[in-house]
Design goal:
By secondary structure, the chain is of the alpha/beta class. The chain is built from eleven helices and eight strands. A hairpin with a 2-residue loop joins strand 3 (about 55-65) and strand 4 (about 70-75). The radius of gyration is 18 Å and the shape is globular.
């Protein structure tokens, strides 16, 4: 089985619609794909409605978190999307995205970058606007060559000249809320130092004590020594280890299935989840539990 547990669609900052995403996942030879848009489940229904036979969808979200001033992301799988407390918390994060993006545009214009809010809104389309859309605008303008190059102190990285803070989950609260909603939590790309500061291993240990289920180890932002170190830490803490592409369509040069999750780990994730179940493809006529 080929299992990719971290992808994005136009419901947040990917370039594939949810329907295109599942079609492309099947074409890439995946057996299981997770749709984990930022702080939203808005793409799930379209993905389920278009799910090809032979592909299983894991519903989820990538939650924006911050601890001790460091940004981090929490992958949440198979939680009940109707859970009121978790939905209220996600809504607070989503509501702050537009003011934050507008502030980044204001700061960039103060740096004599001819970016406009209309440009960012056009790039975001119907998705949940975020920093990657501002980064994509910088690529369009020729300010930086790639989206990744915008996530630096020169531009939009944490503490950068055009960075703006936003409301984010406390990761310990995120773990509590997701677990209460029957979901499973995995710390996304925990050692992606190219993106900025990362949380110390002591924080990962504290999160494990609080109920964190796993860490995303096999990710293109982790080199081999980093992956080995994370596997050792996971063994010490009793955490699951996953692998994923973090696919964003054409926005980033990463292919679906670039990194994958061991089937036994996937099986353990599904065993722990009680809020929702993986959806098997039935040629576009899959079940709609929880939607």
């Amino acid at each position: 089985m080929r299992i990719d547990l971290h992808t994005h669609s136009t419901a947040s900052d990917g370039t594939d619609t949810p329907a295109e995403l599942v079609a492309n996942a099947a074409a890439a030879g995946l057996d299981v794909v997770a749709l984990t848009d930022h702080d939203t489940v808005g793409g799930h229904k379209q993905a389920i409605d278009a799910l090809p036979e032979g592909l299983t969808l894991v519903t989820g979200a990538e939650l924006s978190c911050r601890v001790d001033g460091v940004s981090m992301h929490m992958l949440a799988y198979l939680f009940d999307p109707a859970d009121a407390e978790l939905e209220r918390a996600r809504e607070l994060v989503r509501d702050d995205r537009v003011p934050r993006a507008r502030e980044m545009v204001r700061k960039l214009r103060a740096l004599d970058i001819p970016i406009t809010w209309e440009q960012v809104a056009r790039i975001a389309g119907d998705g949940s606007v975020g920093r990657p859309h501002v980064a994509a605008a910088l690529v369009e303008l020729g300010v930086v060559p790639t989206v990744s190059d915008a996530f630096t102190p020169d531009w939009l990285g944490d503490g950068g000249r055009a960075h703006a803070e936003k409301h984010e989950f406390d990761p310990f609260e995120a773990v509590r809320l997701v677990k209460a909603a029957g979901g499973v939590t995995v710390f996304a790309h925990p050692a992606a130092v190219k993106r900025g500061a990362v949380v110390p291993e002591s924080t990962i240990a504290a999160l494990a004590e609080a109920g964190l289920d796993g860490v995303e180890v096999d990710h293109l932002d982790h080199d081999e020594p980093t992956r080995a170190r994370l596997r050792g830490l996971a063994r010490e803490l009793g955490l699951l280890t996953t692998g994923s592409s973090d696919y964003h369509g054409s926005r980033k040069p990463v292919e679906l299935g670039a990194c994958t999750t061991d089937p036994e780990i996937y099986g353990e994730i599904t065993r722990r989840a009680t809020g929702a179940f993986p959806v098997p493809g039935a040629g576009g006529a899959g079940p709609r539990q929880g939607l």
